[in-house]
Amino acid sequence: MSYADWYDVAGEAGITLMTLIWIFFTLASRPSGKVTNMLFGGLLLTHVSMLLDLIDEFLTYPASSAWLTTIESIPAPFGMVIMSVGLYWWHQEQHVINQQLRKTERYYREHSYVDFVSGLYSAEYMKMQLQHELNYITGNQGTFSLLMLDICQFSKFNHRFGAVQGDNLLREIAQLVQMNIRNGDLACRFASDRFIVLLPQTQLQGANTIANHIQTAIAHLAHKSGETTKAIYPSIAICAKQYGGLHSYQDILADLSLSLTQQKRNAA
C-alpha cells in the first residue's frame, strides 16, 4: 500500500471506531424505547457501511464479484434516514422533558450543578441565576423575591431514622416545593436541609402566598420510614423577602439566611 492508501485506511478506521463509540454511549445513556431503538438502528447501519468500506481496503474481489464493492455504501443512507427520524422523536421527547424541568433549570442546563439527592440544582447554580436576575432587573428597574426554608429538627430525624430516610425526606420535600411554585420560578437545594426559591418579578405579597402554599403542602406530607405505616409529619421554617438590583447576590443570600435564622429563633 502507498502512504495515501494508509491515510485512507486510517480515516475509514477512525470513522468506523467513532460510530461504534456513538452506539455504545447511546445505549449506555438512554432508557429503552422507540427513540433509543431508532438511534441505535440508524447508527448500526451507518457503522456497517463504514466497516464494509474499511474491509474493502484489504480485500480484492474477483471480477465476477465486483458488484460487492458497490453495495458497501447502501446501508449508510438508510441509517441516516432512520437516525434522522430518531432525532426528530428525540426532539419531541426533549421538549416534554424541558417542560417538566422548567422549575429546576430556568435558562441554563449544567449537570455538574445538580444535587443528586433532591434532584434540584445546587446553591452554586442559584448564585449564577441570582446574578443573572440582578443583571436583568438593574437594566429594567424590576424586582424579585426569594424564599428560604429549612426542615425543623432534621438532624434529629437523621439520627433516629438514618441518612437514607433523611435523603428520602429531602426528595419528597423538594418535589412538594416544585409542585407549589410557578413555571419560571426556580427551586434549588441551598444546604443540608435548606432550600431556596427564586421568584422573578414577584412582590412580597405574592411571595408570601407561595410560601404559605409550600408550608401547607409540607405540613400535610405523611412521610413513612421503611416498612412502617406510621406517618411522620415534617414541619418547616420559611421566610420570604423582596429585593431590587442594588445588592450583590452575596449580600442577598446572607440577609435571607439571617432572616430565616431570626425567624426560627423567634418561633422557638
UniProtKB/TrEMBL annotation:
Superkingdom of source: Bacteria
Keyword Kinase: no
Pfam families in the cross-refs: GGDEF
Transmembrane segments: 6-28, 35-55, 67-90
One of the record's GO cellular component terms: plasma membrane
EC number: 2.7.7.65
Keyword Cytoplasm: no
SMART domains found in the cross-reference section: GGDEF
Name assigned to this protein: diguanylate cyclase
Source species: Thalassotalea marina
Source organism phylogeny: Bacteria, Pseudomonadati, Pseudomonadota, Gammaproteobacteria, Alteromonadales
